[in-house]
Design a protein that fits this description.
313 residues; alpha/beta; 8 strands; 47% helix
């Protein structure tokens, strides 16, 4: 199997946190998985990240996780790098998934801090160093304080970056000052990859020196996010303004249906169902929209989809 190796150029661009297509019994929807992967690659993405927050990793069984890793790597066949989330409360389980990802042909793994025990930065540093020592793939740190109750401090990132296997960080804090501080700290380290999670911040992060974005909306409209990234890289501010407006419209209309804390996930996955790319099925404890909410979302989605088609074609 063709796979990307750690001695290639540092990762850059749009790396969608891929949705995990599921059946009604929570098993992997393998048919939809193939369609979604081809949709992403045809849209020009620069990689794929599975088993992240948008991939509902915390609600999936290890059997489903392994099946997803295997089938994703088999379908992609080395065309773009595959990043695999290995976040867990157990170090041993993270190592097990990392080993499985390595055998399947993944490019790298991604790990947020273990999210149950209260730990400090010293313990967090020790945890990541232990993980990096015991795996055989490059490791991206994943800063997700809203879900893990812990920020990976900038000084901690600097310390961890001394490990040969720790190659970058995905920041989903939505804290522009934090991300700017990272960009400043690594201004002379272009090999250490800094990517932003919130898609609303991606263009600004690239202009600040970031390497790209792990944008959930790229599941739906990959070409839009690739175009926005390329416009930001080229400093084409007219195009940035146009595409950024589209991204914000997606955020406002697709991710904010109902009063759920999970409205982003529900809106994204249900919109993918409108495109025939997956079923609107979620891993527990998430549940589908009501009929009325789905009708409201469909109306908004059709308006946005028509607008994007006019702008991008």
């Amino acid at each position: 199997m063709i796979s990307f190796s750690s001695d290639t150029s540092p990762l850059r661009g749009i790396i969608p946190p891929m949705v995990t297509p599921l059946n009604s019994d929570s098993s992997l929807d393998a048919t939809s998985l193939k369609k979604l992967i081809e949709h992403l690659i045809e849209g020009g993405v620069h990689g794929v990240f599975i088993l992240g927050t948008t991939g509902e990793f915390s609600g999936l069984s290890y059997q489903t996780k392994k099946e997803l890793i295997s089938k994703t790597c088999q379908q992609i066949r080395g065309r773009v790098p595959v990043l695999v989330g290995v976040t867990d409360v157990s170090l041993e389980e993270s190592i097990m998934l990392a080993d499985f990802a390595k055998a399947a042909g993944a490019y790298a793994v991604v790990a947020a801090p273990p999210f149950y025990n209260n730990i400090d930065q010293e313990e967090l540093t020790r945890y990541y160093m232990q993980l990096a020592d015991r795996i055989r793939l490059p490791l991206f740190l994943y800063n997700m304080p809203s879900h893990t109750k812990l920020t990976i401090d900038v000084d901690t990132v600097i310390t961890l970056s001394t490990h040969d296997r720790i190659v970058g960080l995905k920041d989903s804090s939505a804290n522009a000052v934090y991300f700017q501080s990272l960009c400043h700290a690594f201004r002379d380290r272009p090999d250490f990859v800094l990517m932003v999670g919130p898609e609303e911040m991606m263009a600004g992060a690239v202009l600040m020196g970031g390497a790209g974005g792990v944008c959930g909306g790229a599941n739906l409209f990959p070409k839009l996010y690739v175009e926005l990234y390329e416009a930001a890289m080229a400093r084409d501010f007219e195009k940035v303004k146009i595409y950024q407006h589209m991204v914000m419209e997606i955020s406002r209309n697709i991710y904010q249906i109902g009063q759920y804390k999970s409205s982003y996930m529900k809106g994204l996955k249900t919109s993918l169902a409108f495109l025939g790319l997956c079923q609107p099925q979620f891993a527990a404890p998430l549940c589908p929209f009501s009929v009325e909410e789905e009708m409201q979302l469909r109306s908004r989605f059709e308006i946005i989809s028509a607008s994007l088609h006019a702008q991008l074609n």
